[in-house]
Write a structure and sequence with these properties.
Layout (H helix, E strand, L loop, with lengths): L5 E3 L9 E2 L14 H18 L3 H7 L6 H8 L16 H14 L1 H21 L2 H13 L4 E4 L15 E5 L2 E12 L6 E7 L7 E7 L5 E5 L11 E11 L12 H35 L1 E2 L2 E2 L4 H30 L4 H25 L11 H13 L4 H13 L6
Parallel strand pairs: 3-6
Antiparallel strand pairs: 1-2, 4-5, 5-9, 6-7, 8-9, 10-11
Helix pairs in contact: 1-4, 4-5, 4-7, 5-6, 5-7, 7-8, 7-9, 7-10, 8-9, 9-10, 9-11
The structure holds flavin-adenine dinucleotide.
Flavin-adenine dinucleotide (FAD) binds next to β3, β5, α10 and α11.
């Protein structure tokens, strides 16, 4: 795909001489810096060379390509927006563009980058002690160590305040018991960022760094997933895990800690979901031009054109929204409610685009020969994690009415 516009028009009518490209109809590229375009090109090449040729097989076998992790470190996408400690220190927009390219490959691979960088590394970067940062962040940025982020529990999903995992003080140690569910990378992680209740009055929820070889830590893959098959999600269990006092993240106070990390990951999803949508749209457009029925390409039917146009409209709007929110994030003016706006809208639209693209591919659309239904299935998870549609609707409802309606 080219960045600017293609298809020359005739000269002489005063209009620009090129027609907008279906791949960047509004020429959003013109609003990116050279560095941002360069970073995007690097991630796009990585996705084309290392993910696209293999993703069908990984998805079919429910296999996460562990060997790609150091390569992602070399490409610079792990903790990409964090500063210092071996992280790339790139802008929020550059990080968003990377998420978009990765998710055009597969949501499972973008999810890995989010869990590692936006959740686990960002928790350590925001709330860790100097020793914790020095120990974990450089090898995580290089992809030599993997992190996971344990907030959700079997009985505490949308309402993390109801978590049961408990950290008890025993002398100067902490002793942790409990369970977590749906934790990305749990079985392959070297360190788990785990959120637990304590009996501290002021900050009842605290974050802990648990090396996964600690006695009492166990993790089990969740199998039978019909979504995110090229990614790993796990049940974690903690049985009398004993940790030294310095295993706690000193800067994280209450649920504000994990929520701050979730906001980082939600931001990446705003871009990533548009990457998955773009992949579906491009596939449907190409298929519709090639596939003939009733003596002409299915792209020649008005009903198909309407579908393609609706997809393109929502991708352009969603990408502009992502860029706008990214620029706000880089300026330091982005509010969590505005992140909810982007996550709710862009994932919802991406799912619609994937499903509509599937109809254009007809029967072939339900196979893994095309990326569309894989994206559609993956996006069901993206819709649920980092706040469901309902949770983001309630966040926005609260923002505009001033009345919380969560319970
Ligand atoms: C692929 C995948 C990866 C994940 N990765 C991680 C991870 O790495 N770390 C982690 O901690 N968690 C992770 N999660 C968990 C994810 O964040 C939760 O699934 C999510 O928060 C929803 O929780 P739940 O599944 O328990 O659903 P529930 O909270 O039980 O919700 C069920 C339904 O009820 C609705 N609902 C709940 N409360 C309300 C309300 N007040 N009003 C209206 N409707 C409501 C929800 O919107 C939803 O539709 C992952 C999940 C998936 C599927």
């Amino acid at each position: 795909m080219t960045t600017a516009q293609t298809n020359r028009r005739p000269d002489g009518d005063g209009r620009p001489k090129v027609r907008p490209s279906p791949h960047d109809f509004l020429n959003v590229d013109a609003h990116l810096s050279d560095e941002e375009r360069e970073i995007r090109a690097g991630v796009r090449s990585f996705v084309e060379e290392r993910i696209q040729p293999n993703i069908r097989d990984w998805f079919e076998r429910a296999h996460f390509p562990r060997e790609l992790v150091p390569e992602m470190g070399s490409v610079g996408v792990l903790g990409m927006h964090l500063k210092g400690y071996g992280c790339a220190g790139k802008s929020a927009v550059a990080y968003g563009l990377a998420c978009m390219e990765l998710e055009a490959g597969d949501s499972g691979l973008r999810t890995f980058v989010s869990v590692q960088g936006s959740l686990a590394m960002s928790a350590i970067h925001k709330f860790g002690s100097e020793e914790q940062k020095e120990r974990w962040l450089p090898p995580m940025a290089r992809g030599e160590k993997i992190g996971c982020f344990g907030l959700t529990e079997p009985t505490a999903g949308s309402d993390p305040a109801s978590m049961k995992t408990f950290a008890r003080k025993d002398g100067s140690d902490w002793v942790i018991n409990g369970e977590k569910r749906w934790i990305g990378m749990g079985t392959i992680a070297d360190v788990a960022v785990v959120w637990a209740r304590t009996d501290e009055e002021t900050n009842p929820v605290r974050g802990f760094l648990i090396p996964t070889d600690t006695r009492g830590f166990s993790a089990r893959d969740i199998t039978g997933k019909l979504s995110m098959r090229a990614s790993v999600q796990c049940d974690l269990s903690f049985e009398d895990i004993r940790l030294p006092v310095d295993a706690m993240l000193p800067g994280a106070e209450g649920l504000k800690g994990p929520f701050a990390c979730l906001n980082e990951a939600r931001y990446g999803i705003i871009w990533g979901s548009m990457g998955a949508a773009r992949s579906c749209f491009e596939c449907a457009l190409e298929y519709a031009r090639d596939r003939e029925q009733f003596g002409k390409p299915v792209a020649a039917f008005q009903l198909t054109q309407e579908k393609l146009v609706e997809m393109m409209l929502e991708i352009e709007k969603g990408t502009l929204l992502a860029l706008h929110l990214g620029r706000m994030k880089d300026e330091g003016t982005l509010r969590p409610e505005q992140i909810s706006f982007g996550k709710l809208n862009n994932v919802r639209e991406a799912i619609e685009i994937a499903r509509e693209a599937r109809t254009i591919l007809g029967g072939n659309g339900v196979t893994l020969d095309y990326p569309v239904m894989r994206h559609a299935n993956n996006l069901e998870s993206v819709r649920t994690y980092e706040g469901t549609d309902e949770v983001h609707t309630l966040i926005l409802g609260n923002a505009i009415t001033g009345i919380p309606a969560f319970r």
